[in-house]
């Protein structure tokens, strides 16, 4: 009988190619991800520069409010501390705030979110559209998540920071897992105190903490 089970070989360049595509999609925020993906890979196959928006460029969206850290904090407050959110419910919150629907769709597509998903991952990808660096993105998230009743600079549990940094770095695709591990070990051992919290200044003003 003919052998039907054949070993599937994954091209060695595929993981990096997909990570670069994901990073470019987050940066560009295309309104039609499928068409943009076709244009992206078509350009690469022809040896041309793909249609990727530079980090400093902001898409112009008329008649919609611009996403800001303040509006992300409003969304976080409306999520009310839940770890898992419903896509339909979050889409309605987004609409009430008059935020661009194409940005919402892009975050959903890049995160491969379905009917239910982790709120922190959605928050991370949304914040990445505002931050020009990973440190800036994490600063925005930290400010969104920080307890308003706390005095002093914004701070969050180190375990939350660890989850967010690992996820964002993986999506970004340009930071090695070993570098992420070294940074997290250093922060945990040398910076985080007995309270288990990390402050924004701990990773934005410490020359030994290089998140990228």
Automatic annotation (TrEMBL):
GO terms for cellular component: sperm cytoplasmic droplet; sperm principal piece. The keyword Lipid metabolism does not apply. It is found in: Cell projection, Cilium, Flagellum. SUPFAM superfamilies: Dimerization-anchoring domain of cAMP-dependent PK regulatory subunit. The keyword Phosphoprotein applies. Important for male fertility. With ROPN1L, involved in fibrous sheath integrity and sperm motility, plays a role in PKA-dependent signaling processes required for spermatozoa capacitation. This is Ropporin-1A. It comes from Sphenodon punctatus.
């Amino acid at each position: 009988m003919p052998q039907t089970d054949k070993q599937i070989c994954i091209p060695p360049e595929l993981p990096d190619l997909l990570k670069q595509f994901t990073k470019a999609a987050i940066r560009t925020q295309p309104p039609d991800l499928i068409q943009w993906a076709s244009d992206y890979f078509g350009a690469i196959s022809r040896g041309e520069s793909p249609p990727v928006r530079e980090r400093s460029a902001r898409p112009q969206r008329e008649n919609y409010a611009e996403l800001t850290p303040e509006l992300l904090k409003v969304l976080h407050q409306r999520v009310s501390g839940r770890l898992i959110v419903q896509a339909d419910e979050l889409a309605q919150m987004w609409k009430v705030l008059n935020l661009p629907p194409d940005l919402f769709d892009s975050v959903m597509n890049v995160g491969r979110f379905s009917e239910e998903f982790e709120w922190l991952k959605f928050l991370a990808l949304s914040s990445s559209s505002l931050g020009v660096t990973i440190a800036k993105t994490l600063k925005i998230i930290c400010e969104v998540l920080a307890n308003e009743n706390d005095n002093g600079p914004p701070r969050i549990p180190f375990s939350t920071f660890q989850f967010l940094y690992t996820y964002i770095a993986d999506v970004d695709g340009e930071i090695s897992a070993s570098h992420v591990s070294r940074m997290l070990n250093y922060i945990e051992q040398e910076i985080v105190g007995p309270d288990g919290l990390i402050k924004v200044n701990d990773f934005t003003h410490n020359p030994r903490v290089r998140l990228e």
